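Quick entry between incubations.
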Amino acid sequence: ETGVTQTPRHLVMGMTNKKSLKCEQHLGHNAMYWYKQSAKKPLELMFVYSLEERVENNSVPSRFSPECPNSSHLFLHLHTLQPEDSALYLCASSQDRGFGANVLTFGAGSRLTVL
Amino acid sequence: DAKTTQPTSMDCAEGRAANLPCNHSTISGNEYVYWYRQIHSQGPQYIIHGLKNNETNEMASLIITEDRKSSTLILPHATLRDTAVYYCIVMGSQGGSEKLVFGKGTKLTVNP
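Done. Structure below.
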């Protein structure tokens, strides 16, 4: 399998649940990202990992907890979410974090609904 | 990073060329122009990028004006599958990949 794979594609959870989103890339990239896309809003960058180290955290609430165990896998752990957290969560990867024809490859996204 | 201005929406007939404009009048010398697109409910897809010269790949062509204040993405023979939101992004050479800021883009509808 190639590219960036996200699972699950759809997730419905209650506000007291704990769930995780998974992202896997098979491109040999060193940087991985989580983005959030709410309805009719631009993409918002949440977290950036470079060589498994978190390098950017864009003031994301602590109910979102990222984990990058290795350069191929990225998780987003979710707990006590709010209905306004319902959105499309997108994972992306790039060869490295720095510039230089650095193209982002996105996964298909995980559609999250919080009841 | 410079801001971009794109039309909110455009229509194109299937089989015809789709020309998507982007204004970036405050672009500086080291800033690149990137184009991505997002088909409904999927992740964005990289299309092309350039600095000064026109660029072409298997997906599209990018025409950048000589003063670099505007550019046009050309899909030479649009198909129904090209219906998507197209994002024009300007990013400098000093930023990390996270500096790629997605605005509202242009909603392109290709009609049969």
